Amino acid sequence: MELDYYEILEITRDADGDSVKKAYRKLAMRYHPDQNQGDKEAEERFKLINEAYQALSDPQKRSLYDRYGKSGLDNQGFRHYSEQNYEDVMDDLGAIFESVFGSSFSSFGGRSGRQKTKKYPLDLETTITLDFNEAVFGCNKEIDYQFKSPCEECDATGSKDKKTHSCKKCGGKGQIFFRQGFMTFSQPCPSCNGSGESIKNPCPKCKGTSFIQKEAKVSVDIPEGIDNGNRIRVAGRGNIDEYDQKGDLYVLIRAKEDEYFVRHGDDIYLEVPVFFTQAVLGQSLIIPALHGEKELKLPTGARDKQQFVFEGEGVRNVHTRRKGNLVAQISLKYPKKLNEEQKALLEELQASFGYESTPHESSFEGVFDRIKSWFGKA
Greater confidence, 236 or 17? Predict the structure, then answer.
Protein backbone atom coordinates (compact mmCIF):
# COMPACT_ATOMS: atom_id res chain seq x y z
CA MET A 1 0.00 0.00 0.00
CA GLU A 2 1.39 3.39 -1.01
CA LEU A 3 2.05 5.75 1.89
CA ASP A 4 0.32 9.12 1.76
CA TYR A 5 2.71 12.06 2.03
CA TYR A 6 0.05 14.18 3.73
CA GLU A 7 -0.47 11.51 6.38
CA ILE A 8 3.29 11.21 6.89
CA LEU A 9 3.52 14.95 7.66
CA GLU A 10 0.26 14.78 9.64
CA ILE A 11 -1.40 17.58 7.65
CA THR A 12 -4.55 17.97 5.57
CA ARG A 13 -4.49 18.05 1.78
CA ASP A 14 -5.39 21.76 1.73
CA ALA A 15 -2.51 22.74 4.04
CA ASP A 16 -0.62 25.82 2.84
CA GLY A 17 3.15 26.10 2.43
CA ASP A 18 3.70 27.43 5.95
CA SER A 19 1.79 24.52 7.46
CA VAL A 20 3.88 22.06 5.44
CA LYS A 21 7.10 23.66 6.65
CA LYS A 22 6.01 23.78 10.31
CA ALA A 23 4.86 20.17 10.25
CA TYR A 24 8.14 19.07 8.68
CA ARG A 25 10.25 20.91 11.22
CA LYS A 26 8.28 19.49 14.11
CA LEU A 27 8.49 15.89 12.90
CA ALA A 28 12.13 16.17 11.79
CA MET A 29 13.06 17.22 15.29
CA ARG A 30 11.14 14.33 16.80
CA TYR A 31 12.49 11.54 14.58
CA HIS A 32 16.01 12.72 13.81
CA PRO A 33 18.57 9.88 14.24
CA ASP A 34 20.70 11.94 16.64
CA GLN A 35 17.68 12.13 18.90
CA ASN A 36 16.86 8.43 18.52
CA GLN A 37 20.21 6.66 18.34
CA GLY A 38 19.85 2.97 17.54
CA ASP A 39 16.15 3.28 16.74
CA LYS A 40 15.77 1.89 13.20
CA GLU A 41 12.06 2.66 13.09
CA ALA A 42 12.71 6.34 13.85
CA GLU A 43 15.43 6.40 11.19
CA GLU A 44 13.04 5.05 8.54
CA ARG A 45 10.36 7.47 9.67
CA PHE A 46 12.86 10.33 9.34
CA LYS A 47 13.60 9.34 5.74
CA LEU A 48 9.90 9.26 4.89
CA ILE A 49 9.38 12.68 6.47
CA ASN A 50 12.13 14.16 4.30
CA GLU A 51 10.75 12.42 1.21
CA ALA A 52 7.27 13.79 1.89
CA TYR A 53 8.61 17.27 2.56
CA GLN A 54 10.56 17.39 -0.70
CA ALA A 55 7.42 16.49 -2.61
CA LEU A 56 4.95 18.77 -0.84
CA SER A 57 7.18 21.82 -0.32
CA ASP A 58 7.75 22.25 -4.06
CA PRO A 59 4.60 23.55 -5.87
CA GLN A 60 5.42 21.67 -9.12
CA LYS A 61 6.08 18.37 -7.38
CA ARG A 62 3.04 18.79 -5.15
CA SER A 63 0.80 19.37 -8.16
CA LEU A 64 2.08 16.17 -9.80
CA TYR A 65 1.68 14.22 -6.58
CA ASP A 66 -1.89 15.45 -6.06
CA ARG A 67 -2.80 14.30 -9.61
CA TYR A 68 -0.89 11.07 -10.05
CA GLY A 69 0.50 10.12 -6.65
CA LYS A 70 4.08 8.99 -6.11
CA SER A 71 4.24 7.41 -9.56
CA GLY A 72 3.70 10.84 -11.10
CA LEU A 73 6.91 12.05 -9.48
CA ASP A 74 8.83 8.94 -10.58
CA ASN A 75 7.70 9.33 -14.19
CA GLN A 76 8.94 12.92 -14.25
CA GLY A 77 12.39 11.92 -13.05
CA PHE A 78 12.08 13.19 -9.48
CA ARG A 79 13.98 11.02 -7.04
CA HIS A 80 12.48 10.60 -3.61
CA TYR A 81 15.57 11.86 -1.79
CA SER A 82 17.34 13.79 -4.50
CA GLU A 83 20.94 14.94 -4.24
CA GLN A 84 19.85 18.26 -5.69
CA ASN A 85 17.79 19.13 -2.61
CA TYR A 86 19.76 17.17 -0.03
CA GLU A 87 21.88 20.14 1.05
CA ASP A 88 18.85 22.41 1.31
CA VAL A 89 17.09 19.89 3.54
CA MET A 90 20.13 19.41 5.75
CA ASP A 91 20.77 23.15 5.94
CA ASP A 92 17.19 23.61 7.11
CA LEU A 93 17.61 20.86 9.68
CA GLY A 94 20.88 22.36 10.81
CA ALA A 95 19.15 25.65 11.47
CA ILE A 96 16.44 23.87 13.45
CA PHE A 97 18.92 21.99 15.62
CA GLU A 98 21.09 25.06 16.12
CA SER A 99 18.10 27.05 17.35
CA VAL A 100 17.52 24.41 20.03
CA PHE A 101 20.96 22.97 20.87
CA GLY A 102 23.33 25.78 19.90
CA SER A 103 26.19 26.24 17.49
CA SER A 104 27.47 22.65 17.78
CA PHE A 105 24.85 21.79 15.16
CA SER A 106 25.60 24.78 12.93
CA SER A 107 27.44 22.74 10.28
CA PHE A 108 25.05 19.82 10.48
CA GLY A 109 25.36 18.24 7.04
CA GLY A 110 25.21 21.68 5.46
CA ARG A 111 27.05 23.14 2.52
CA SER A 112 30.67 24.19 2.98
CA GLY A 113 30.37 24.27 6.75
CA ARG A 114 28.27 27.40 6.57
CA GLN A 115 26.98 28.50 9.95
CA LYS A 116 23.40 29.52 10.38
CA THR A 117 23.28 32.49 12.71
CA LYS A 118 20.31 33.60 14.72
CA LYS A 119 18.83 36.77 13.32
CA TYR A 120 18.10 38.09 16.80
CA PRO A 121 18.25 36.79 20.38
CA LEU A 122 15.09 35.15 21.63
CA ASP A 123 15.26 36.57 25.15
CA LEU A 124 14.53 40.24 25.63
CA GLU A 125 14.58 42.69 28.51
CA THR A 126 12.41 45.59 29.52
CA THR A 127 12.72 47.95 32.48
CA ILE A 128 10.03 49.16 34.86
CA THR A 129 10.27 51.71 37.66
CA LEU A 130 8.58 51.00 40.98
CA ASP A 131 7.74 53.33 43.82
CA PHE A 132 9.52 52.57 47.09
CA ASN A 133 6.43 51.00 48.66
CA GLU A 134 5.69 48.88 45.56
CA ALA A 135 9.11 47.26 45.76
CA VAL A 136 8.91 46.75 49.53
CA PHE A 137 5.38 45.35 49.72
CA GLY A 138 4.96 43.90 46.22
CA CYS A 139 2.32 44.74 43.64
CA ASN A 140 0.92 43.79 40.25
CA LYS A 141 2.02 45.65 37.15
CA GLU A 142 0.69 45.57 33.60
CA ILE A 143 3.70 45.98 31.34
CA ASP A 144 3.67 47.22 27.76
CA TYR A 145 6.55 45.91 25.66
CA GLN A 146 7.60 45.08 22.10
CA PHE A 147 8.84 41.76 20.77
CA LYS A 148 10.14 40.45 17.46
CA SER A 149 8.10 38.00 15.41
CA PRO A 150 8.82 36.40 12.00
CA CYS A 151 7.46 38.38 9.08
CA GLU A 152 4.57 36.36 7.62
CA GLU A 153 4.60 38.36 4.41
CA CYS A 154 7.98 36.93 3.32
CA ASP A 155 8.06 33.72 5.41
CA ALA A 156 10.84 35.26 7.51
CA THR A 157 13.22 35.37 4.55
CA GLY A 158 13.37 39.16 4.37
CA SER A 159 12.83 38.84 0.61
CA LYS A 160 9.81 40.07 -1.32
CA ASP A 161 9.84 36.98 -3.55
CA LYS A 162 10.75 34.75 -0.56
CA LYS A 163 14.03 33.87 -2.24
CA THR A 164 17.51 34.38 -0.87
CA HIS A 165 20.81 34.21 -2.72
CA SER A 166 24.29 33.18 -1.77
CA CYS A 167 26.24 36.11 -0.35
CA LYS A 168 28.86 37.23 -2.87
CA LYS A 169 31.28 38.50 -0.26
CA CYS A 170 31.66 35.21 1.63
CA GLY A 171 30.50 32.81 -1.09
CA GLY A 172 27.63 31.60 1.07
CA LYS A 173 29.90 30.41 3.90
CA GLY A 174 28.80 33.05 6.37
CA GLN A 175 32.45 33.53 7.35
CA ILE A 176 35.31 35.55 5.91
CA PHE A 177 38.94 34.55 6.44
CA PHE A 178 42.04 36.70 6.78
CA ARG A 179 45.68 36.13 7.60
CA GLN A 180 47.87 37.80 10.17
CA GLY A 181 51.40 36.52 9.92
CA PHE A 182 51.27 32.74 9.97
CA MET A 183 47.79 32.61 11.51
CA THR A 184 44.46 32.44 9.70
CA PHE A 185 41.41 33.92 11.40
CA SER A 186 37.72 33.93 10.58
CA GLN A 187 34.85 36.17 11.52
CA PRO A 188 31.16 36.44 10.61
CA CYS A 189 30.69 38.02 7.22
CA PRO A 190 29.75 41.70 7.77
CA SER A 191 27.80 41.79 4.52
CA CYS A 192 25.31 39.03 5.44
CA ASN A 193 25.82 39.03 9.24
CA GLY A 194 27.02 35.44 9.08
CA SER A 195 23.92 34.04 7.37
CA GLY A 196 25.64 33.31 4.05
CA GLU A 197 22.61 34.73 2.27
CA SER A 198 21.78 37.99 0.56
CA ILE A 199 18.52 39.56 -0.53
CA LYS A 200 17.92 41.24 -3.88
CA ASN A 201 14.34 42.38 -3.33
CA PRO A 202 13.73 43.33 0.32
CA CYS A 203 10.30 42.62 1.72
CA PRO A 204 8.36 45.92 1.97
CA LYS A 205 6.70 44.91 5.23
CA CYS A 206 9.80 44.02 7.26
CA LYS A 207 12.22 46.03 5.07
CA GLY A 208 14.46 43.02 4.63
CA THR A 209 14.94 42.28 8.34
CA SER A 210 12.79 39.10 8.21
CA PHE A 211 10.94 40.13 11.37
CA ILE A 212 8.44 42.70 12.54
CA GLN A 213 7.97 44.40 15.88
CA LYS A 214 4.75 43.63 17.71
CA GLU A 215 3.29 45.22 20.80
CA ALA A 216 2.01 43.24 23.76
CA LYS A 217 0.88 43.56 27.36
CA VAL A 218 1.61 41.21 30.20
CA SER A 219 0.49 41.25 33.83
CA VAL A 220 3.38 40.61 36.20
CA ASP A 221 3.19 39.91 39.92
CA ILE A 222 5.99 41.83 41.65
CA PRO A 223 7.02 39.87 44.76
CA GLU A 224 7.34 41.54 48.14
CA GLY A 225 10.90 42.64 48.86
CA ILE A 226 12.18 42.91 45.30
CA ASP A 227 15.17 45.22 45.07
CA ASN A 228 16.71 47.63 42.63
CA GLY A 229 18.55 45.71 39.88
CA ASN A 230 16.62 42.45 40.35
CA ARG A 231 15.11 40.77 37.28
CA ILE A 232 11.85 38.86 36.93
CA ARG A 233 11.61 36.15 34.25
CA VAL A 234 8.34 35.80 32.37
CA ALA A 235 8.59 32.51 30.46
CA GLY A 236 7.59 32.38 26.80
CA ARG A 237 6.94 36.11 26.40
CA GLY A 238 10.14 37.00 24.54
CA ASN A 239 10.93 37.14 20.83
CA ILE A 240 9.72 34.42 18.44
CA ASP A 241 11.86 32.98 15.65
CA GLU A 242 10.90 31.36 12.35
CA TYR A 243 10.87 27.93 14.01
CA ASP A 244 8.26 29.10 16.53
CA GLN A 245 10.83 29.01 19.31
CA LYS A 246 9.86 31.53 22.00
CA GLY A 247 12.27 33.31 24.28
CA ASP A 248 11.64 34.74 27.73
CA LEU A 249 10.91 38.28 28.83
CA TYR A 250 13.13 39.61 31.61
CA VAL A 251 11.78 42.54 33.61
CA LEU A 252 14.54 44.67 35.12
CA ILE A 253 13.51 46.46 38.31
CA ARG A 254 14.34 50.07 39.06
CA ALA A 255 13.10 51.13 42.51
CA LYS A 256 12.66 54.75 43.55
CA GLU A 257 14.13 56.05 46.80
CA ASP A 258 11.97 57.24 49.69
CA GLU A 259 12.18 60.66 51.30
CA TYR A 260 12.69 59.23 54.80
CA PHE A 261 13.42 55.51 54.63
CA VAL A 262 16.78 54.43 53.19
CA ARG A 263 17.01 50.83 52.05
CA HIS A 264 20.20 48.75 52.23
CA GLY A 265 19.31 45.22 51.16
CA ASP A 266 16.67 44.00 53.59
CA ASP A 267 17.39 46.64 56.24
CA ILE A 268 15.72 50.02 56.47
CA TYR A 269 17.57 53.02 57.90
CA LEU A 270 15.79 56.02 59.37
CA GLU A 271 17.48 59.20 60.55
CA VAL A 272 15.78 60.55 63.68
CA PRO A 273 16.44 64.22 64.55
CA VAL A 274 16.87 64.59 68.32
CA PHE A 275 17.29 67.84 70.26
CA PHE A 276 20.37 67.82 72.46
CA THR A 277 18.35 68.09 75.68
CA GLN A 278 16.31 65.02 74.66
CA ALA A 279 19.53 63.08 74.20
CA VAL A 280 21.00 64.29 77.48
CA LEU A 281 17.89 63.66 79.56
CA GLY A 282 16.67 60.55 77.73
CA GLN A 283 13.19 60.44 76.27
CA SER A 284 10.70 58.19 74.47
CA LEU A 285 9.95 59.18 70.87
CA ILE A 286 7.36 57.90 68.40
CA ILE A 287 9.01 57.25 65.03
CA PRO A 288 7.60 56.02 61.68
CA ALA A 289 8.13 52.40 60.59
CA LEU A 290 7.21 50.42 57.46
CA HIS A 291 4.07 49.04 59.05
CA GLY A 292 3.06 52.01 61.17
CA GLU A 293 4.94 53.46 64.12
CA LYS A 294 7.44 52.39 66.79
CA GLU A 295 8.50 53.73 70.18
CA LEU A 296 12.17 54.72 70.38
CA LYS A 297 13.39 54.89 73.98
CA LEU A 298 16.43 57.14 74.22
CA PRO A 299 18.68 56.37 77.17
CA THR A 300 20.14 59.18 79.24
CA GLY A 301 23.15 60.62 77.45
CA ALA A 302 22.36 59.23 73.99
CA ARG A 303 25.15 59.97 71.51
CA ASP A 304 25.02 61.55 68.08
CA LYS A 305 24.67 58.90 65.32
CA GLN A 306 23.87 56.23 67.89
CA GLN A 307 21.82 53.44 66.29
CA PHE A 308 18.84 51.55 67.67
CA VAL A 309 17.76 48.31 65.97
CA PHE A 310 14.19 47.03 65.66
CA GLU A 311 14.55 43.40 64.60
CA GLY A 312 12.20 42.06 61.94
CA GLU A 313 10.84 45.50 61.06
CA GLY A 314 12.68 45.76 57.74
CA VAL A 315 11.99 44.35 54.27
CA ARG A 316 11.09 40.73 53.63
CA ASN A 317 13.83 38.97 51.65
CA VAL A 318 12.51 37.99 48.22
CA HIS A 319 14.31 34.61 48.41
CA THR A 320 14.47 33.54 52.08
CA ARG A 321 11.25 35.35 53.11
CA ARG A 322 12.97 36.51 56.30
CA LYS A 323 12.62 40.13 57.31
CA GLY A 324 15.46 42.56 57.79
CA ASN A 325 15.70 45.20 60.51
CA LEU A 326 14.69 48.80 61.00
CA VAL A 327 17.72 50.82 62.12
CA ALA A 328 16.98 54.20 63.69
CA GLN A 329 20.01 56.50 63.83
CA ILE A 330 19.74 59.68 65.87
CA SER A 331 21.07 63.00 64.66
CA LEU A 332 21.64 65.54 67.43
CA LYS A 333 20.33 69.04 66.83
CA TYR A 334 21.46 72.18 68.64
CA PRO A 335 19.86 75.61 68.88
CA LYS A 336 21.19 78.06 66.32
CA LYS A 337 20.37 81.11 68.45
CA LEU A 338 19.89 81.70 72.19
CA ASN A 339 18.05 84.53 73.89
CA GLU A 340 19.44 86.05 77.07
CA GLU A 341 17.33 83.90 79.35
CA GLN A 342 18.33 80.66 77.58
CA LYS A 343 21.99 81.68 77.62
CA ALA A 344 21.87 82.41 81.34
CA LEU A 345 20.22 79.07 82.06
CA LEU A 346 22.86 77.18 80.09
CA GLU A 347 25.70 79.05 81.79
CA GLU A 348 24.18 78.24 85.15
CA LEU A 349 23.82 74.60 84.11
CA GLN A 350 27.43 74.47 82.94
CA ALA A 351 28.73 75.97 86.17
CA SER A 352 26.76 73.40 88.16
CA PHE A 353 28.88 70.62 86.62
CA GLY A 354 32.10 72.24 87.80
CA TYR A 355 35.32 70.63 86.57
CA GLU A 356 33.26 68.07 84.57
CA SER A 357 31.98 70.81 82.28
CA THR A 358 35.50 71.48 80.92
CA PRO A 359 36.71 68.02 79.85
CA HIS A 360 39.27 69.44 77.44
CA GLU A 361 41.33 70.80 80.34
CA SER A 362 41.75 67.41 81.97
CA SER A 363 42.31 65.71 78.63
CA PHE A 364 45.17 68.01 77.60
CA GLU A 365 46.81 68.40 81.01
CA GLY A 366 50.60 68.49 80.56
CA VAL A 367 50.41 68.38 76.78
CA PHE A 368 51.18 72.07 76.29
CA ASP A 369 54.38 71.85 78.40
CA ARG A 370 55.52 68.80 76.43
CA ILE A 371 55.03 70.61 73.12
CA LYS A 372 57.08 73.59 74.36
CA SER A 373 59.93 71.21 75.28
CA TRP A 374 60.16 70.10 71.68
CA PHE A 375 61.26 73.59 70.72
CA GLY A 376 63.48 74.23 73.80
CA LYS A 377 61.07 76.67 75.37
CA ALA A 378 60.48 74.76 78.58
Answer: 236
